[in-house]
Description:
By secondary structure, this protein is mainly alpha-helical.
Amino acid sequence: MGLCVSVRRSVLVLCAYLCFAGAARGSESPAPSAHPQTPAAQAGSSETSPSESKTPEQTKSEQYTLPHERQAKAVAYSRAGYTLYFASYFLGGLFLFLILRLGWAAKFRDIAEKVSDKKWIQGLIFVPLLFLTRDVLDLPLRLVWHSLSLHYEQSIQGWGSWFWDWTKEESLSTAFGIVLVLILFAVMRRSPRRWWLYFWFPAVVILVGLIVVTPWVIDPLFNKFEPLSREHADLVASIEKLTKHAGVPIPAERMFLMVASHKTNAINAYVTGLGTSKRVVIWDTTIQKTSTDESLFIVGHELGHYVLGHVGQGLLLGAAGLVVALYFLFQGLHWALDRWARDWKLYGQEDWASLAVLLLLLQLLLFVSSPVISGCSRMQEHAADVYGLEVIHGLVPNSEEVAAHAFQVLGELDLSDPNPPPFITFWLYSHPPLAERLVFAHTYDPWSKGESPKYVK
């Protein structure tokens, strides 16, 4: 799973997602993110084998095209993904509203308070009860999505493995959520009027720590990683030439292979971590299903994220946005309590049950902020595309066509929508539409125009 996938389930983890959503999306592969409710591990398709796909020498990829039958599948799959995206937000908000309206949140609070008078023990009981209830209600939608992915051969992960990953994800997100919630309510009790500001400091520290340790601790719980040089020394040597050409050599020990082929047919790569944990990760399916030159372009795209500092930039921008988000939650919580505290049996903002209100507000905030987060991500992805094209120029023969053909292969495997509606692109696409990226790759040529490349001189 990619960066932040394992911690995006709980409510305050979703609040954390506001802080580093840009960094996470900025570290995805050059494949388009048309189905945001799906982890990257569920993308891809087995219907078009890379060994059967044409190489750049056999065809020119000037436009993104699909055979009629496959295009119909791509459209159907994409439309289903869009529907599930909006349904997930609507149903998530509805479930939280029902948890409040039916008094479940208040009952969970009463159970926690009967067990102990100590606040931290109450939190250890209340938070898992609330999170698990919400996620169990949300589970059918996730089951539908995985079924859809299996139906369209986008995933090959069996149900047993899928449920085991879901269980690990729930355990991690609940544990992380407990820590954040205990800190949040302790700050609330200490400063009822400024908790939204004071909570920001430990939240950012924890999130930075999470991004640092994710490659070492969390990612290996879901996938197997090994040094890329272990079985692909030739590719490492080619990548080293690429990084030296860019003037930013990345040591071989920071290049890793992720064994994704037992769960997905997707091709992918990403940059993750901060500081000493920063690394470039390539999926084994990428190496299996693309030519060496195409793999180098994909790696070049990821080097763009690495060199241009997109993970760090996303963290900084998100940290600033988190202050605004927390202030919105503060104001929204008091607005909601003034109107419905009695109906929902809430005592005030320090009531454990008010966490459900914060989650409901956060659900709304994440939805309305999606276009902003997606737009920032698309800009980063375009910059990484430019960097990838520039860094392979002169090292890979016919580099523009190689990049364009790589996008064609990605689209065929990912069942990418050939013509996504503009509103959908604006609202939820974390990457520019693949058709636009392919045309750009084929036409970007500052060298023949006597212009200076933007990033790689």
